[in-house]
């Protein structure tokens, strides 16, 4: 073997060993840093809880001796717990973080080039509920990076301004840029404040927007939207919208919706919509629906029959009594569905004991 080849192999071997050592060293550094951060989190979490629980009128103050790393970790822990804190405790933490400059820093970072930093800045603004920054968060909806747009949707769900609601409703018309489920969850965070805009969307939006609007109105129990939902259940051209409207009426739970739900359960051309209407009748729990539900247990479409049987379990004493009557004819189709529903009802009852 020539001296040149030996030297080359020695260099390659040394290089490989050096790379392995560097890789192992970097991994060790990361592990040590992660352990230290975990230790700081565990040490500072009680302090954050103490700051949130302070019940005096003085602004929260930090104890002396905290390092730069301690303060950065404390800020992150406080941001993480904010969604779980309500009332004065939340205000205490927000005041502390704003005084620490997090809100101003987030607004500055929104103008920086890195999308990861912009996305985090938007989320911080939302977590702190900085309504004065609504314009900037709405502007982030136009960011060319999807992670920033998604962060903006989440943040708008945490801001309380009407502008935030309007911007989220507008997002429903562009599901290719803003995931409809995420937008719906953000709108649900506004509760009944989003009701008027969503009712308008029920009539004017594209199908996906109308569907999500109905779902959110149901999730927020928007009694004022009942008439609009009844109209969509009866007249919308899209089965998905009609199904969402039926589900929403069930969650709202008004007995005044029974007639519209019965009509849909009997005459809607879509079996899925009929099933949703039957399920909603069970959610409303009005005994006037029992005859319709009982008859539907024999429907040839599985989802219709099973929805009717399950709905009967939720209608006072009359619903289960109707199932017991049907279950007596075990060899028939209605009897089998009734037996399955009663068995599920018994399992649920056993689970609550």
From TrEMBL:
Pfam name, any one: HEAT_2
GO molecular function per UniProt = oxidoreductase activity
Q: Which Gene3D superfamilies match?
A: Leucine-rich Repeat Variant
SUPFAM superfamilies, alphabetically? ARM repeat
Record InterPro entries: ARM-like, ARM-type_fold, PBS_lyase_HEAT
Which superkingdom is the protein from? Answer: Bacteria
The identity of this protein, by name, is HEAT repeat domain-containing protein
């Amino acid at each position: 073997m020539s001296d040149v080849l030996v030297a080359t192999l020695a260099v390659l071997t040394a290089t490989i060993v050096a790379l392995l050592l560097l890789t192992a060293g970097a991994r060790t550094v990361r592990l040590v840093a992660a352990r230290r951060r975990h230790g700081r989190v565990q040490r500072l979490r009680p302090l954050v809880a103490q700051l949130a629980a302070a019940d005096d009128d003085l602004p929260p103050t930090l104890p002396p001796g905290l390092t730069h790393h301690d303060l950065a970790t404390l800020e992150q822990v406080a941001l993480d717990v904010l969604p779980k804190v309500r009332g004065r405790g939340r205000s205490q933490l927000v005041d502390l973080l704003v005084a620490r400059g997090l809100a101003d820093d987030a607004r500055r970072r929104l103008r920086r080039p890195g999308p990861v930093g912009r996305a985090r800045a938007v989320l911080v603004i939302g977590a702190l509920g900085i309504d004065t920054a609504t314009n900037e968060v709405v502007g982030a909806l136009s960011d060319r990076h999807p992670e920033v747009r998604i962060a903006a949707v989440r943040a708008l769900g945490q801001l309380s301004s009407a502008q935030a609601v309007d911007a989220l409703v507008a997002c429903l018309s562009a599901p290719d840029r803003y995931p409809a489920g995420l937008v719906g969850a953000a709108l649900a965070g506004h509760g009944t404040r989003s009701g008027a805009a969503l009712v308008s969307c029920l009539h004017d939006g594209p199908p996906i927007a109308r569907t999500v609007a109905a779902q959110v109105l149901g999730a927020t129990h928007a009694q004022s939207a009942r008439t609009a939902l009844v109209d969509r259940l009866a007249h919308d051209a899209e089965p998905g919208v009609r199904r969402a409207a039926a589900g929403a009426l069930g969650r709202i739970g008004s007995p005044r919706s029974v007639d519209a739900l019965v009509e849909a359960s009997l005459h809607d051309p879509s079996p899925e919509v009929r099933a949703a209407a039957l399920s909603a009748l069970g959610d409303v729990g009005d005994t006037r629906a029992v005859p319709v539900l009982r008859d539907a247990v024999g429907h040839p479409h599985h989802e219709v029959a099973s929805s009717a049987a399950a709905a009967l379990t939720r209608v006072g004493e009359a619903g289960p009594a109707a199932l017991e009557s049907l279950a007596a004819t075990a060899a028939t189709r209605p009897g089998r569905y009734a037996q399955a529903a009663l068995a599920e009802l018994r399992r649920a009852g056993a689970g609550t004991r």
